[in-house]
Every structure is written in structure tokens, then in C-alpha cells.
Amino acid sequence: MNTKLLFADAGAFPTPMLAVFAVDLATGKKEEPRPLLLTQSSDLAGAATRALGPGEFKAGLGETALIHTSDRLKSAGLQPDRLLLVGLGKAKDLSLDRLRKGTGTAVRAAKARSVPELAIAFPEASADLNAPLAELSAKLTARALAEGAELAELDWDTYRSDRKDRSVNDLSLISKVLDKNTEQQALAGFAEGLIVAAAQNFTRSLVNEPGNVLTPTELGARAKAMCDDAGLACQVYSTEKIRALKMESFWSVAKGSAEPPALIVMTYEPAGGVAEGAPVLGLVGKGITFDSGGISLKPGDGMEKMKYDMAGAAAMIGAMHAIARLKPAVKVVAVVCAAENMPDGRASKPGDVVTAMSGTTIEIVNTDAEGRLVLADGLHYAKTLGATHLIDAATLTGACVVALGVLNAGLFSNDETACAKFVNALAVSGEGFWRLPCTDDYRERITSEIADIMNTGKNRWGGAISAAMFLKEFAGDTPWVHLDIAGCAWNEEKKPWIAYGPSGVAVRSIVEWVRGYSAQ
Ligand code: BES
Ligand code: ZN
Ligand code: ZN
Fold it and tell me: pLDDT band for position 130 (50/70/90)?
């Protein structure tokens, strides 16, 4: 999709389809919907009047209505052939995230109708609605529109013979003419949005791949190709190095598969170097390219979903792609631990004890709790590479999905400052993360009788916390943020603004967290 940002009068822009946002002004539950078009153009408002009549279009989030422009209106100066009204929901709920979703809805509606050229009008405040829109900056608005559009464009029927390559080829985001300074801000936000969304789409493309295609070796190759292209240093190691580093915890997962593991290290150094004592950020991703559960075999039902057990790794690889292009003034090292978790004659058995690279001994009670085993060595290794602050992302526990459902992912941290920076990042990314505890009083839940710790909690209760406590052991005193994205990495339900399949969750938030440490 060729996406541009223009400063012009949307109503006078010749295009096969112009999308215009609308909100519902009704507040009370019993009140009839009162849709309001977010435009200052009387031509556009006039053309839509009839569609805004009682009940026809309620401006609900994801709702659309199509209007073909009459010759009369065209001769009066209204240029688009069609208007697509796009609902953003209740006026009081208007947010950047709703704009992102509304833009996505417009792109997917155009795509479904085989309209290859689309224009979208920036939302404009009116006398009836000022507060929520006025609070959104031109920069973040442009960024949200760019992101929403790019994320919406893709469908994941990659391997279908009847795949229709329908797409919106040309997209024009149209803002009214602003003062030069605000226009620059909008252009900067737009450029950032394209970069971050491209990174998130790259993550999604990795998560989408089946386990037979995306083996640990292939994940390494794709990370390397991205890094070569983006100008990042990248090393991809395998069994020999993992064993030489004494990553017995990581290896205990990998050794049950015929596919060799991959330890992927990607490094971003700011052009001007970094000051002595400046932070070095360590990004660590769980890259289980297929999780059968190992000897603690998972039930067959739904096991195919475990191809996306590398979504944490893919998020880190995508984040590095964006970081390479956004160039924050902070050094970043990403470590991805990729392996297949399979049952085999050589696989780890429940009851086995291994010594992690840090020297901590681990009793493997359940071979299906493998993510924390690979991350244990990944987190420790990132510290040996100089990381002063850590963030990890992992499809780690079903328990997190039980706790939070699919709208929020789990957020854990041992450090208020690092965590606050992550929460700040969410205001820009619009992603849902909900903090859960991992205080030291939970530590006894992972104490083993035979070793230092065990890889499950004493029982099922608070399973996401037990997993976090396990990782916390390896973060040690280093400020650390842990993201359990098990419930959010895969969209089971398609929405008007996004396709079924890989979501690319966490990329935007991680990138923003990193930028929060930038020296400039
Ligand atoms: N990969 C799974 C977690 C998962 C569940 C990811 C649902 C995505 C969707 C993880 O390796 C796992 O199997 N965890 C176990 C841990 C248990 C054995 C302590 C779980 O959650 O059941
Ligand atoms: Zn597992
Ligand atoms: Zn897993």
C-alpha cells in the first residue's frame, strides 16, 4: 500500500472513496444514537445528512455506511465518488486507539469492496464536540492513522490457493491545511507510524508461519536477513554455542527435537555512541517455534495453535526492526531463544534437574513449562552482554489468559521506574497490558525440595505469577519488565479493523519503552 499524508480540503479531493469519521453524541443508555460527522466541511456534512437519519447509521465502533455521491453534489464541488462513514463509537470514549481502529475499519471496508484507492479525512472537531479531539496531538493522530491503516491491510490466508490479492494500493490520509509547525509534527508522527506498523507487520508475518516452515534455524535466518537490511549486527548461534555457554536450561528444552535450536543476538548501537554508564536495554524473547508440551504432552485439541509460541521472539525481532529505523539514543541488545519443544527419547523428563547458565539449579516438574526455561538463560545471557535493564515477551502461560482474557496481556516488573516507563509507553501504543504482582512473598511457590527452584508453581493457582517469579530469579537485581502475551498474540476473532490471526502485540509498546530511555 502506497500511503501518503496530504494537507488539503478532503471534500475537494478527487478519489473513488473518501472515509469520514463519525461519533455518537448520545450519552444515556435510553437515548437514541446521535451520530456526528467529524468534519468542518459543510459539503461533506451535507452529503451525509440523509444517512445520519434515525437508526440508519449509529456511528458504533467498526460500523460503516456507504454513500454514492450524486451528480448534483459533484457539480457543487464535492469531489469523492463515494463517502464511507466510519463509526468510532461514543464521543466520550474517543481516543487514539479508536482512531487507529476506525482507520483500519475504513481500509478493510475498501479492501472488501475491491476499491483500490482510498482517502481518509482526519477527524475534525466541531462546536458539538471539542474536548476529546482537542486533546489529541497532530503528531499522535497522524501516527495512529498510519498505524491503523497499515495493520488493517493484511490478511493471513498466506497458503490458500484461492488467496485473493485484493488490496488498497493507494491511501491518502487528508488533514486540513495546518500551520507549518503543526504540519511538520503530523508528518513526523505519520513517518513514525509507518515504521512501527511495518515492524509490527513483520512480526505478524513471522508468527503466521507454520512450525514446519519457521523452524528455529529459519527464525534465525529471517532475523539475520532483517538485521542485514536494517544495518544491525546479528549473530545466530546453535547447539554448540548454547552448550559452550552452559545454557543447560535452554538446552533442556531444545534437546528433545530433531530441529537444532537458535540463539539469536541482535545489537543496535546509536550512531554517536553512548556515554559511560548509560543504560543498555536487553530485549529477551521466547521463541518456541512449536510447543507440543514435550514429555508432558499437551492434549491434541488446539495443539496446532502452539506454532505461535514464538510470538515473544517475533515481537523482539520486529521491535529491533523499528529501533534500527527510529534510531533512539540508547544501546539495545536483543536475545532470542528459539527451540522446538518435542517429546523424544532424548527429551527432558519430569523430575530432571538442570543447572542454568547463572548457576541456579532447576527441577523440571513439567516439560510444558518450557518458556521460562529458555528465558532463564536468555535473561542471564543478556546481562552478560551488558544489559542494565531487561524486558521480556513470551506466550508464557494459559493461566494469564484465564486471568485477563484476550483484551489485556500480563505485565510484571521488579522495578517501579522501568514499569512506569512501560505504562507511559502504553499511552502511545494504545495496547492493553494489566499489571499483576510478583512480590517476594510468592517466591516460596517455586521452591523445590531437590533444587533451587522448580519450573511450575506448587499448584495451578496464580500460574502466571509463578512463571513470573521464576523469571524474576534470573533478572535478579536488574530492573526488569515481563510481558505475558499468551492471550493476545493471536486474534481468534476477526474485527472490522483487523484480520483473524497474528496480532503483533507488544511491538509498539516495546519500541516506545525503548525510546523512553533515549538520551535525546
Ligand atoms: N505455550 C504455553 C502457554 C500458552 C497457552 C501460550 C495458551 C498461548 C496460549 C506454555 O508453554 C505452557 O504450556 N504453559 C503451561 C505451564 C504449566 C505447565 C505450568 C500452561 O500454561 O498450562
Ligand atoms: Zn508449554
Ligand atoms: Zn510454550
Answer: low
Binned at pLDDT 50, 70 and 90, residue 131 comes out as low
Ligand 1 contact, 399 CB (< 6 A): yes
Please give the model's pTM, rounded to 2 decimal places: 0.97
- Alpha-helix runs per DSSP H in 66-114: 71-75, 96-112
Integer Cα distance of 261 and 242 in angstroms: 9
Q: Which ligand is nearest to the CA of 308?
A: 1
Residue nearest to atom 22 of ligand 1 (CA): 398
- Domains in the chain (CATH in brackets) are 2-175 (3.40.220.10), 234-324+332-505 (3.40.630.10)
**d(Cα 501, Cα 506) in Å, to the nearest integer?**
15
**Contact call for residues 438 and 412 (beta carbons, < 8 A):** yes
Contacts of 387 (CB under 8 A, 6+ apart): 280, 281, 282, 333, 478
In testing the pocket of ligand 1, which one of 397, 490, 503 has its CB within 8 Å of the most ligand atoms? 397
Question: What pLDDT digit, counting tens, does each position of 316-343 carry?
Answer: 999 999 999 999 999 999 999 999 999 9
Integer Cα distance of 441 and 461 in angstroms: 14
